[in-house]
Specification:
The chain has 443 residues and is an alpha/beta fold. It has a 5-stranded mixed sheet, sandwiched between helices. Bound molecules: 5-phosphoarabinonic acid. Catalyzes the reversible isomerization of glucose-6-phosphate to fructose-6-phosphate.
Length: 443
């Protein structure tokens, strides 16, 4: 089977030659670099251009961290966090906490400012050896900088400055930012986030690859999957054969037809953080200039018992994109029961995945009948290779979609607004006038 199949037969969209032409133009802009945000297009050819030496260096550094620590604390937020978290969750064991621990674990910090979370983290690692990966492209983002200050102090208390330098790896800009200066001064190993790759498109740089290698994920397979998808969505590929082009076309057609919300869903709970990564990718790329589909998500079948009612009968402003997995890795069958008190003997002998599949098909038809168009993305399995392909597919479709929408998909001017207020409230030096003004507003 192909690495990824897209089914738009239940989307209710007929692709016209004009729509196809517009998508072709948008796709071309990603290669000709003539569109908005053209200095952030390094991700387009990233999978095919990652040097084997870079991958080897990442794997060697991950090995070093795994050898010296039970727990590797990965610090970052937004695009410097969600890609690694998404793949690590998908590839991990849902019940790892219940099993005897044989391998080092990667945990995440710096994606919030919660005192409870940070206290519990420090408390939980008290009796474990620790190391840290700190990730920030700008090197100045408050959440990871605060978390890193706390974790760095803990590492230095335990292992001294020299020991800390052996246990901390920084991933940041080539030359700029406080993290770069700090890493150089402290002598940390560093990896560079290429200038032309923005945060939410950086999962296939050391930003995603180092934490994932540290978590034991096969990053070469991840990159190979992405590379396969890079080829499958290239400029020369026929439109109908290019799943990213077709997906972008259909979702934009639905937007233009009045749909305002795209819900990404999956019947595999392990993919829940893929939803989160996708929401950031599409929300930050498209939500600007008063435009853009609102990216929402559901985990199924659980959310059929919460959001299912709304999706079926609420405002008709949404469509659904389902990521479906062909084959589970493990087998669980439903047994026959002599008494059949629960009335489930009609399922006896079936695999749970068959029941899950019928739920998926039943929901698809019900939602389509209820006025919710459905797109279906099928991946063969949850593996590093398939996830690499899925990530790149979504990135490519996002770049095309942003251009179809007429926005710059590679900036995020809107995320600055809250920072100004937060710095003013915290009396950051340089924000004196803003502090005074915000105090007035709060009186
Ligand atoms: O996609 C983006 O650019 C953002 O989500 C960033 O990844 C996020 O704000 C973190 O930024 P930084 O890596 O500079 O700390």
């Amino acid at each position: 089977m192909k690495t990824l199949k897209l089914d738009i037969s239940k989307a209710g969209v007929e692709i016209t030659p004009r729509m196809e032409e517009r998508t072709r133009e948008a796709l071309s802009l990603l290669y000709s670099k003539q569109g908005a945000g053209n200095d952030f297009l390094g991700w387009v050819t990233l999978p095919s251009s990652i040097a084997p030496q870079e991958l080897s260096r990442i794997e060697a550094e991950a090995k070093k961290l795994r050898e010296c620590a039970d727990v590797i604390i990965c610090i970052g937020i937004g695009g410097s966090y969600l890609g690694a978290k998404a793949v690590a969750e998908a590839m991990g064991d849902s019940f790892a906490a219940l099993r005897p621990r044989k391998e080092p674990v990667v945990v995440f910090a710096g994606q919030n400012l919660s005192e409870e979370y940070t206290y519990e983290l420090l408390d939980a690692v008290k009796d474990h050896s620790i190391a840290a990966i700190v990730i920030s492209k700008s090197g100045t983002t408050t959440e990871p900088a605060v978390a890193f200050r706390i974790v760095k102090a803990e590492i230095e208390r335990r292992y001294g400055k020299a020991g800390a330098a052996e246990r901390i790896v920084a991933i940041t800009d080539r030359a700029r930012g406080a993290l770069k200066t700090l890493a150089d001064n402290e002598g940390y190993a560093t990896f560079v986030i290429p200038d032309d790759v923005g945060g939410r498109f950086s999962v296939l740089t050391p930003v995603g690859l180092l934490p994932l290698a540290a978590a034991g994920v096969d990053i070469e397979a991840l990159v190979r999957g992405a590379e396969e998808m890079e080829r499958a969505t290239g400029e020369q590929v026929a439109f109908a054969e290019n799943p990213a082009a077709v997906y972008a076309t259909v979702r934009n057609a639905l937007y233009e037809a009045g749909k305002k919300i795209e819900i990404l869903g999956s019947y595999e709970p392990k993919l829940q953080y893929i939803n989160e990564w996708w929401k950031q990718l599409y929300g930050e790329s498209e939500g600007k200039d008063g435009k853009g589909l609102f990216p929402a998500s559901v985990t199924l079948t659980a959310d059929l018992h919460s959001m299912g009612q709304y999706i079926q009968e609420g405002e008709r402003t949404m469509f659904e994109t389902i990521v479906s997995v062909t084959a589970p890795k493990h087998e669980v069958r439903i047994e026959s029961d002599a008494e059949n008190l629960d009335g489930l003997n009609y399922l006896a002998g079936k695999r749970l995945s068959e029941v899950n599949r019928m739920a998926e098909l039943g929901v698809q038809l019900a939602h389509v009948d209820g006025g919710v168009p459905n797109l279906r993305i099928e991946i063969p399995e949850i593996s590093a290779h398939a996830l690499g392909a899925l990530l790149y597919f979504f990135e490519k479709a996002c770049g095309i979609s942003g251009y179809l929408l007429g926005v710059n998909p590679f900036n995020q001017p809107g995320v600055e607004a809250y920072k100004k207020n937060m710095f003013a409230l915290l009396e950051k030096p340089g924000y004196e006038a803003e502090t005074k003004a915000i105090r007035e507003r709060l009186k």
